[in-house]
Specification:
This protein is an all-beta fold. 2% of the residues lie in helices and 48% in strands. Keywords: Glycosidase, Hydrolase.
């Protein structure tokens, strides 16, 4: 897929050279792609039998061929399954790193999830460091990635719990650790699935998909609509935050904003919110879908029956004295929320029984909503 504005995407078909019988090959041969500056090639790694990571190469991202087998990451014997490789450069070690989803041998799938690391000076000679993160309490951490931001290394993954879970991260001073067992934070809710970081001028942007149908653990449809990208940035307290990328915010400013909501299928609502000190929460109705709940320590998206479909820990204590910015995107049964240039939250809600137009109202009169404006937008099909 290609895009110039991160809103409109076009499919670019890819091809692969004929595969010989001795080649290791899978249909998902373009996975974990990175640019090898030393050769000018794009490389891909993907999991294969016994947990080896097999490589493909391309000059243009469109036409691929099998890489020589010396570029593969060899298997090991400490896991039942290993997959989802991601390669990155470690400047202080002058080596490449490769993090991989790992299901540890002899452990239940529900608690055997770990992330393993291999390093190499030349993409050929790999040293397996084993599991660098093994909490003993999680399922397989989907799509692990590691990146440098705010003077720390961050390990990102979506925790599997009978469904692809929310993107969480751990922070450390070194790729080798130590890594805490508990995550340092979350970057979104459970409906931003298999989220992945892409770098633009060394700035990380988070891309994930929203399930095609409202998703509960054990009943999640695999795949969905691509969510709006989130810019990931370091906060003064060392945590990570997410916000709408500047290029998208600029694009939306060109829309026809107005003070009243129209009869639209897809709506952007933009406002500022102040929460009085004595107030524990405020609820903003998004008729007919449900409600957005703003609590001092949490954001929640509820359906029309009051069931929570996505939530995120948050700190909205500053909203007592200083209004926080809120931008809300509604498209059919999808909701995406951006708050205070620090939090984002996506959800797919059960389809409303009626085809009523969107309506935005506050249930609690003590909360202050100001600078409210609305725009119709046309998200890509």
């Amino acid at each position: 897929m290609r895009s110039r504005d991160w809103l409109h995407w076009t499919e670019a078909p890819i091809t692969h050279d004929p595969v010989k019988p001795e080649d290791w090959m899978r249909p998902y041969f373009v996975l974990g792609v990175w640019h090898d500056a030393s050769t000018g090639l794009f490389r891909s790694l993907y999991g294969h039998n016994e947990g080896r990571m097999v490589s493909s190469v391309s000059r243009d991202l469109l036409h691929w061929s099998c890489a020589p087998k010396e570029f593969h990451v060899p298997p090991a014997d400490y896991y039942q399954r290993r997959r989802d490789p991601f390669v990155f450069w470690i400047p202080e070690m002058k080596q490449y790193g490769c993090v991989m989803t790992t299901w540890m041998k002899g452990r239940p799938k529900e608690t055997g999830g770990a992330v393993s690391l291999a390093t190499s000076p030349d993409l050929k000679q790999w040293k397996d460091h084993g599991p660098i993160l093994d909490p003993g309490t999680i399922g397989e951490p989907e799509c692990p990635q590691m990146f440098w931001l705010g003077q720390k290394w961050h390990l990102l993954a979506s925790i599997y719990d009978r469904a692809v879970g929310q993107p969480v991260y751990w922070s450390s001073s070194s790729p080798l650790g130590p890594w805490k067992k508990e995550p340092d934070g979350m970057l979104d809710g459970k409906d931003l699935c298999a989220a992945q970081i892409a770098l633009e001028n060394q700035t990380p942007f988070l891309f994930g998909w929203i399930p095609l149908k409202p998703a509960r653990p054990g009943k999640q449809t695999w795949g969905g609509h691509l969510a709006l990208p989130r810019e990931v940035h370091a906060l003064p307290d060392g945590k990570l935050g997410t916000r709408l990328p500047a290029k998208l915010a600029k694009n939306f400013e060109d829309l026809a904003w107005q003070p009243e909501i129209g009869v639209w299928k897809s709506v952007i609502a933009d406002f500022r919110l102040t929460l009085p000190e004595e107030m524990k929460e405020t609820r903003v109705r998004i008729t007919p879908l449900g409600e957005i709940v703003f609590q001092r320590d949490r954001l929640r998206i509820l359906d029309a029956a009051g069931e929570c479909w996505s939530e995120l820990a948050a700190d909205l204590s500053t909203a007592e004295t200083q209004a926080v910015s809120v931008r809300l995107f509604m498209d059919g049964d999808m909701v995406e929320l951006f708050v205070a240039d620090r939090y984002s939250l996506a959800a797919r809600l059960p389809a409303p029984k009626s085809a009523a137009p969107f309506e935005l109202t506050s249930k609690d009169g003590s909360a202050t909503i100001t600078h409210i404006r609305f725009a119709e937008w046309a998200p890509p099909p």
